[in-house]
Amino acid sequence: MITFVNVFTVLPEKQQDAFQAIQKVYTDVVAHQPGFISANLIVSDDGVRVTAIAKWESEENLKALRNTQGFKDLHNENFYNSIISNDGHVYSTVVEINPQK
Predict the structure, then answer these.
(1) For residue 101, what pLDDT band results from cuts at 50, 70 and 90?
(2) In the CATH hierarchy, which fold is given to the domain comprising 2-91?
């Protein structure tokens, strides 16, 4: 399993628009892809970031997503209208710490 973290820097006045565009990609396309496990979409309190944290079975599944027509269709001018940049990276879990009971 891998974790993909993508931090989008957005225009502060358009954080909600950016969030909705990113959420649409995840609900309409990503959620239906082979190998997708789960995702959290979070927004920064300062209004300048939206972060997507997604778990995938493999990096190959993530790469295949980028080639789907639905993914390409939703990454249009409207999608990038409120996004300044994005920085995505694949992470491997090294240690998982859970509350002690």
Answers:
(1) confident
(2) Alpha-Beta Plaits (3.30.70)
